[in-house]
Structure formats: C-alpha cells, structure tokens
Amino acid sequence: MDTKLFSRMQEGGIFSLLDRDRFATGKIWWVDSSNTTAGANLSGHGVNPDAPFLTWVYAVSAASADDTIFLMPTHSETIGITTAAAVTLSSAGLKTIGLGGRTRRPQILIDGFADTYILMSGADTELENITFIAGHANIAKAVSVTAAGVTIRNCSFLENAGSENFLIAIQTTSAADDLLIEDCVLYGVTQGTEGIELVGATDRVTIRNNYIAGKYSVAAISAITNLCLGIDIDNNQIYNSTTAGNDLHGGIDLITGTTGIVTRNMVYLGDDTDCLTAIDADACMLAFNYVANEFGEEAGFNKTVAA
Questions:
Q1: Domains in the chain and their CATH numbers?
Q2: What global pTM score does this model have?
Q3: 182: burial class by Cβ within 10 Å (0-12, 13-18, 19+)?
Q4: What confidence category does residue 4 fall into, taking pLDDT thresholds of 50, 70 and 90?
Q5: Of the residues 110, 125, 256, 296, which has the maximum number of CB atoms within 10 A of its CB?
C-alpha cells in the first residue's frame, strides 16, 4: 500500500493530505497576516489555513522541534527588538516555508533598530522562499547562524527606500558547520561590508546558485577571520559595485588555510581591482571562475590557467 500521503486529522475530520516524504514528523502551522477575520494569535489557531496565526513570531513561539511553519502568499510582518534577536529559531529541525510566487511570497520587514536580526540557533533549521527587507539604515546583519546544518534557500535580502540597508545579509559563528545557502538573491545599492560573512571556523559550508549584488567594502563572500575546511562555493553571480578604494578580493575572500572548491563563479567588480585578485581562495581548488572590471568587456579567468 502506498503510504506517501498521510491524512492529517483534526477535530471534525480530515483536514488535508500531506507528503510525509518531505514532512516526516512534527506539526504543521499556518500564518496569514491578511486573514484578520478568522485568524488570531491564540491557542486553537494556526493548525488550519482558514484559522491561522497572524504572525510568524507567534507561530515560532508555538512550534516545537521538527515542526513546519507555512507563511501564506502575501503575508507581511514587521519585526525588531533593540540589541536582540527579533525572532529566534531555536527548535531543532524547525522549517519556515513561504508560499507564493516571486511577487507574492511572504515579506518580513526588519525594522526599528540597526542591531536587531533573525537568529537561527537550532540545528537543521530552515528558511525557504521568503523576502527579508531592511527597514532601517545600516542594520548590522539580517540573519545570524549559530548552529549546524542550517539551510537558507530561495530567499531574498533587499533594501527598502531611503538607504535602509543590511551591512551583512547572512553572518555565521564558528558553530555553523554544514550550512547551505542556495538560490538566494542578495541585492542592494547602499554601501555595506559583506553579503555573506563566515565568522569562525565553519566547515563544509555550501554557497551555490546565488545572485549577490551590492556595494561591499570587504567582499561579497568572506571568511577572513578563521580558516574553513571543505568549503564549496559554486555557480554564484557576484556584482560588487563599490568604488570605496582598491577593493582587493572583492568577490570572494577566504583566509589562509581554507580548503575546498571554488568553481563556476562569475564576478564583476566596480573599481579598478585587478581581475587576478578578485577571488582569494587560498588553498581551495579553483575552476572556471570568470571576472570582469569594465562594462562591455568579456570576463576572463580569475587566475592563470594551469598547463
């Protein structure tokens, strides 16, 4: 008997069918800010999209390990707490998945303070298909990853009007081994420092298939404090438009001793950096990385090609 589809029961009968190949365990929670008639941040809500929670913050407080939170299409929410995490994803395996296409997917505005952020401190937590927008000038970081096995997939990190921006979109600590960042968009026009910053000895990090465009005074992707082992940076499109000085290694900058593979990345630099210094991958294997620093010119290899 095919048991791929499992009926989720609730009072009154079957509510829905779920694919238990993807959602093997845990509860399912629903959030919809637009459903103010039937929705509420109260016990008894959230288990049905017709009677959802109204905020992601409340859903996170109700959820446990291995649960899944669905944010409905066009859900919008503003978060922010001074000098602290506005949302803390501490339950291991907790997934937050946005529903809706590119123009209707949920939007989370991080606002009010330059020192507030989203904390992913639970192992194997996930964010997928959500747009995060800066609502304040020079927000230090949008997401802080402090646990192993975290996934950030198909998310956007964008600026708001009036130079409201993230200095760093995603920042880690040394506890963020086995991190996966894929299919994301990091986009801004205001001066920042990094798109993705790996702080500490984070091993087996995978950064792939992302579009990273901004003014980064350090680098679009950086790991310049501690060496990382087994890193995989593949197939990213990077545009560092900063003109704030001679921005060496403005595409990818990895500290001495870092190992892994850096392949198929395309980098454009907005200053006069030599194309040969756009990527500093130290002990990583390099292949098929292309760099340009003049509009209208075809990109060339980042390094001398081996014989």
A1: 25-301 (2.160.20.10)
A2: 0.91
A3: middle
A4: very low
A5: 110
